[in-house]
């Protein structure tokens, strides 16, 4: 798995694009009912591209390795935009190309845990509407718009292939969208759009097998909300470890194995043996569900946690503390240009919300 950024290397040849256009021409020439449906669908994708492309921009910058480029998209009318951490997280001299002009941009927030960055260019901008990735299903069609290989703005079409919490044995910090399209260098940070033209994800990683991963837009919006409130990401933590129980209790196999002394969980009265049913709005069925829930905790906010203790169901209101890794990261930023890390070891037997 590689991060989606672009430097001097242009990657694959243009033969890939030529073969795609040839295939499309062949389809258009066959006026069967199936091909007519294909043409109609192609027009739908073109409509998304024409409506949404105005809010998608090319990003150019430099880092210690040289020039790089990527894609970003506006999310408010004052020039705030999302991109991938690999594009805007550790770069300098950032410029945004918009309507044929290049505007200087500055970093508002960069978060290596999620893999995204929030930038700001001082201009009036169109915006992309925010969608809901929870409404996606396997085989839902999606469109991306990006700037591959230093070429012009380009649409790509694919389908949702999965909703994954880990890859190659390592856990993502939250569920990621697996999309069966192969973005090129320069498309890191591109929006993943449903056919309504709403953003449902942000492209982060690509594979050699014609697929890629995108961060769900809800995860990015959680971090943007943190920035608006606090000026930085504020991941929350309550201080418990959970493992898989031998048998489910009310549909959950997530049993608390440790409550760390001096943490919000300990102060609220959680105990080892408590079976976790729900954290905030997230229902818990497996230990991995606590990872999904903990990503959306915000330090300082109270979150309701429902557990079963013996035969009694109980709900605790717990004020989350700052995630310990966040404290470390603020004190010692990660080295430049490392690949975006996945957060849990494959063999880790416990999960910590």
Walk me through this protein's architecture:
This protein has 353 residues and is α+β, with helices and mostly antiparallel strands. The chain folds into two domains: 55-232, Thrombin, subunit H, CATH 2.40.10; 236-331, PDZ domain (Pdz3 Domain, Roll). 21% of the residues lie in helices and 39% in strands. The protein has helices at residues 15-29, 33-52, 85-88, 217-230, 264-268, 288-295, 324-331; strands at 2-3, 56-63, 66-74, 80-84, 92-98, 101-111, 116-121, 141-146, 154-167, 170-179, 191-193, 199-206, 212-216, 236-237, 240-249, 252-259, 275-279, 282-283, 302-309, 312-319, 321-322. The strands form five sheets. Strands 8-9-10-13-12-11 form a six-stranded antiparallel β-barrel. The longest helix is centred in the N-terminal third of the chain and has 20 residues, at 33-52.
Percent of residues in beta strands? 35-45%
Please report the distance between the alpha carbons of the first and last residues.
26 Å
Q: How many DSSP-defined strands?
A: 21
The domain tally reads 2
Highest CATH level, the class of the largest domain: Mainly Beta
Give me the secondary-structure topology.
Elements (H helix, E strand, L loop, with lengths): L1 E2 L11 H15 L3 H20 L3 E8 L2 E9 L5 E5 H4 L3 E7 L2 E11 L4 E6 L19 E6 L7 E14 L2 E10 L11 E3 L5 E8 L5 E5 H14 L5 E2 L2 E10 L2 E8 L4 H5 L6 E5 L2 E2 L4 H8 L6 E8 L2 E8 L1 E2 L1 H8 L22
Antiparallel strand pairs: 1-12, 2-3, 2-5, 3-4, 4-7, 5-6, 6-7, 8-9, 8-11, 9-10, 10-13, 11-12, 12-13, 14-21, 15-16, 17-18, 17-19, 19-20
